[in-house]
Design brief:
Helix content: over 70%
Number of domains: 1
Shape: elongated
Length: 139
């Protein structure tokens, strides 16, 4: 069960954050050139895979609870990972998704593209921070 939870945790993180990164790339296109054909095609879909960012800490916590050598929820790497996720989730809900909706509606496309691009960059940095914490597990 532990291995399945870790696998689900990793898959959700990679697919969710990867989707946000790709959306940020298209946000950059929208920022530079406005609502072009390629950008409109990309944003025609609502991008449900980005929501896979949200279950990441819950799957990680469940895996940590079942870890054979019992993980400690008070370790610095666990707390740091949770903090990174909280900030990333807030960016997803309050900046990324609204910017995508504006681009989809072709409303304020260039400013929305800029917000989407930079919030995606911030989420990518948070993903890398969390990844380093998970791999190194500093106490």
């Amino acid at each position: 069960m532990y291995d399945a939870l870790v696998a689900a945790h990793v898959v959700c993180a990679v697919v969710g954050f990867g989707s946000v990164a790709l959306s940020g790339v298209y946000g950059g296109f929208a920022r530079n050139s406005g609502p072009g054909e390629e950008t409109a095609r990309y944003f025609a879909s609502r991008g449900w895979t980005e929501w896979l960012v949200l279950p990441v800490p819950f799957l990680g916590a469940a895996a940590l609870a079942l870890k054979p050598e019992k993980g400690d929820f008070s370790d610095a790497w666990v707390i740091g990972g949770i903090v990174a996720w909280v900030v990333a989730a807030a960016l997803l809900v309050h900046v990324v998704r609204p910017a995508e909706a504006r681009i989809r509606r072709r409303s304020e496309v260039k400013p929305a593209g800029r917000r989407l691009m930079w919030s995606s960059v911030a989420m990518d940095v948070l993903f890398v921070v969390a990844l380093v914490l998970m791999v190194t597990q500093p106490r």
